[in-house]
Specification:
single chain; 147 residues; alpha/beta; Spore Coat Polysaccharide Biosynthesis Protein SpsA, Chain A; 4-stranded parallel sheet; 29% helix; 19% strand
Amino acid sequence: MNTGSVQTLIVLREEEHAWLQDLFRSRHPMLVTLCNKPFIEYLIDFAILSGSEALRIASDSPITDLENYCGNGSRWGITIDYAHILPEDDQERLLEKNRQFCSRGKTMLIEKTLFVPTTKKTTTDYGSGLSGRSRGFRHERINHHPG
């Protein structure tokens, strides 16, 4: 085993991002754009900055769009491949299924940290969330050019 190499295993479970899939039906949740960049690119960047030489995306649902977007990782200078898991696979089974990938050295596992569910309720009253201290703030304009 080469203990100097690092690889990243990203685990995507459909149930964890189903709510987001409902909001963005036309794209995979990992391809939702945040600040002009698909979310998966933040995970790829994190893997690269952590020293990973290879990355595997394991999912329990179809990820064809994600595979088409990421390809083999050459655009980022990292090797990306893909694996299928079952929804009932626990972490032990997941690592067993990916034993050969994980045996290359140190493995960083990214799972269950991808999105925080939120309600679909929208709020347009931005002032209602202000604390009492914020409501008491007084702004004074200072005129530096008298006359």
